[in-house]
Amino acid sequence: MFTKGGIRHVILAALSFSVFIFFAVQQSMGAGFQLFNELSAKGTGLGGAMTSLQDSPEMAWYNPAATPGFTRTRLLAGMALVMPSFELDIPSGHDPQMKNMAYPLPYFYAGKGFKDRFGIGISINAPYGLVTEWHKDWPGRFFAIKTELKTLFFTPSISYKVNRYVSLGVGAQIVKCIAQLKQAISSRTVPVASGVTITTPELRTT
Length: 206
Fold this sequence. Notes:
Elements: H1 4-29, H2 41-45, H3 59-62, E1 74-82, E2 103-114, E3 118-125, E4 130-133, E5 146-161, E6 167-171, E7 174-182, E8 188-193, E9 196-200
Antiparallel strand pairs: 1-2, 2-3, 3-5, 4-5, 5-6, 5-7, 8-9
């Protein structure tokens, strides 16, 4: 039998879980071009669970407030390789496959602590971006043949350690973004006069 305090705890736990599920679902729906786990080898291995780590160069991106704890200058540079592969399942006919390509994702992180109170950090990476490219004659060519998003994030940050339990960090993101969408235009018949029509050919990207 639940006590009054026990019922309150159960209700709070249920509400917290509901809020977590709501935001988790919203994030997963909007993360098609997100590359959060590929921003370092450690981040890939830990599935992006990086914010609680200490004395790791990646904190310049994941948690700038941790840089006051750096005992020395920390640098990290590397590159991840993303090779997406998709196949469309068509009930009747040939199943088209996306072009197999590899895309490099370079990253650079640097951080330094001062007097166990202050910290600075610099992060250069590409947390969003990808390319999907299909063959020019695939059935969905009128929707998309090539979809490309390229980003470059430059994030300087500073931080201050208030006490052994609280650190504050602030940074600014300078972002360069390039987006490209290529698709085919279907053949159309257009009336130009009474009884006269013009049929335009299908147009495809080169």
